[in-house]
Specification:
It is a single chain. This protein folds into 2 domains: 94 residues, Cytochrome c-like domain (Cytochrome Bc1 Complex, Chain D, domain 2); 95 residues, Orthogonal Bundle (Cytochrome Bc1 Complex, Chain D, domain 2), CATH 1.10.760. Helix content is 57%, strand content 2%. It has a two-stranded antiparallel sheet. α7 packs across α10. The longest helix has 32 residues. The radius of gyration is 26 Å and the shape is extended. The relative contact order is 0.10.
């Protein structure tokens, strides 16, 4: 008994208990989160959707992603990416890719809405992942002011403060967001396509994502009340325009004056 009492008083006993508590808490949280995500990703689809989606996948996607969507040397695994990733990539025409390149380009969608839903159902059945957002988060009735703040903090460094897009490294780019549906914007935030980071509900809440969509749709509908936006690139493009156009006018005027004098 005395030996056990001495071990309990060991200086490392408290640290060991804390570590055990953290491990147990983290494990329970991970299990609960996985169960919730799995329910969210699969309950909106029928077994028939998943079966039809599997046929479409094997006929159109398995060449790159593998028969079981486990990935190959040419394309990543799709297990656990969720329905949102598939709906975004397929719905915007980025997948199937037209050709290999630094980034999948947007193009007309190859599959209709029903086929896209079936593909999403099949991939969602392979593992828990972000689900297609509910209609209530896409009503564009959020707080545009809060959405603008969130967008400038989290997104403007790539997409530009006016959501006009911008260049990245090695031939990649952040696309302009005008004309993109609210559903695809939300899905991009939760799935992180291309070089975009994933904004989970911990980083940006669902309400925050709704606010961002509201902000983007508001600035899209407002247009450019001040005149030509010059690509929405800010003072750089405006300064360049002044130097080129302004100096050009001055030089032309100078030439005209000298020709009149002679």
């Amino acid at each position: 008994m005395k030996a056990l009492s001495q071990k309990r008083r060991h200086p490392l006993a408290v640290i060991a208990l804390l570590l055990m508590g953290l491990l147990v808490t983290g494990g329970l949280y991970a299990v609960a989160t996985t169960v919730n995500q799995a329910k969210a990703s699969t309950t909106s689809y029928s077994a028939n959707d998943s079966a039809e989606g599997k046929k479409l996948f094997q006929a159109n996607c398995a060449t790159c992603h593998g028969m079981g969507a486990g990935g190959t040397k040419d394309a990543p695994s799709l297990v656990g990416v969720g329905a949102a990733a598939v709906d975004f990539q397929v719905g915007t025409g980025r997948m199937p890719m037209q050709m290999n390149g630094p980034q999948a380009a947007e193009k007309p969608a190859q599959f209709n809405d029903q086929q896209t839903q079936q593909l999403s159902a099949y991939v969602a059945s392979l593992g828990a992942g972000p689900a297609v957002p509910e209609a209530g988060l896409l009503d564009e009735k959020g707080d545009a002011a809060k959405g603008g703040e969130l967008f400038r903090v989290n997104c403007a460094m790539c997409h530009n403060a006016a959501a006009a897009g911008g260049a990245l490294t090695r031939g990649k780019f952040a696309p302009a967001l005008a004309g993109v549906s609210g559903q695809h914007i939300y899905e991009a935030m939760v799935s992180g396509p291309q070089n975009m980071p994933v904004f989970s509900d911990t980083n940006v809440s669902p309400e925050g994502k709704r606010d961002i969509i509201t902000f983007l749709k508001q600035i899209e509908s407002n247009g450019s009340p001040g005149g030509a936006d010059l690509g929405s690139l800010g003072p750089v493009s405006e300064g360049l325009f002044v130097w080129i156009a302004g100096l050009g006018v001055i030089i032309a005027f100078t030439i005209w004056l000298t020709s009149r004098t002679s």
